[in-house]
Amino acid sequence: MTIRVLLADDQALLRSAFRVLVDSEPDMEVVGEASDGAEAVRLTRQERADVVLMDIRMPGTDGLAATRMISEDPTLAHVRVVILTTFEVDDYVVQSLRAGASGFLGKGSEPEELLSAIRVAAGGEALLSPAATKGLIARFLAQGDGDDNDPVRSERLAALTVREREVLVQVAGGHSNDEIAERLEVSPLTVKTHVNRAMAKLGARDRAQLVVIAYESGLVRPRVE
């Protein structure tokens, strides 16, 4: 299947560069370009995009609001939003993840990293850009509003089995299925099953939301460095 990609950035030069890169791949194509968030939401619906590369800072409706509108629309449940940011350590990134983004990518990333991010986001298996260090999400969440312990989500964790909780902790640490399998001495397929069950029980769209839930519920605490 061809991955349908929508580009949302207010800089036409950047959109052009991304278009050339994406369209050069045999398994993906750019189906639209948007210069603001409102247009991004409209084109996501109109062009049936699979992945949206979304800049945060845009005039009018910004990328954060657009991401929230996409993630809250049940007709767009299949769409994955990857946030594009100038600096990966960005106060808006955690808000974007909470709004429903599947991950983020620095604009200074290598072309191969961008293409990989699109593929893994489309497959629902990814959390962060390859350049992002493990545990970065923890530091973003530590910069939140101080009300990270969500009692509703804490109660929902009670539905998880002991093994599902263990797997969720590992996912929150930024580990891949293969890494988790090695740590817990089980097969990658077993890990994937546990991850999918945890997502279903917690109402998470993807791994990114699983991580946010893990921290907001208090299951995992941000590391102090």
Automatic annotation (TrEMBL):
UniProt keywords, alphabetically: DNA-binding, Phosphoprotein, Transcription, Transcription regulation
Top-level division of the source organism's lineage: Bacteria
Pfam families in the cross-refs: GerE, Response_reg
InterPro entries documented for this protein: CheY-like_superfamily (IPR011006), NreC/VraR/RcsB-like_REC (IPR058245), Sig_transdc_resp-reg_C-effctor (IPR016032), Sig_transdc_resp-reg_receiver (IPR001789), Tscrpt_reg_LuxR_C (IPR000792), WalR-like (IPR039420)
UniProt keyword Transcription regulation, yes or no: yes
Transmembrane segments: none
Domain Response regulatory: residue ranges: 4-122
Segment forming the signal sequence: none
PANTHER family: TRANSCRIPTIONAL REGULATORY PROTEIN NARL-RELATED, TWO-COMPONENT RESPONSE REGULATOR
Protein name, entry field: Response regulator transcription factor
Organism: Streptomyces doebereineriae
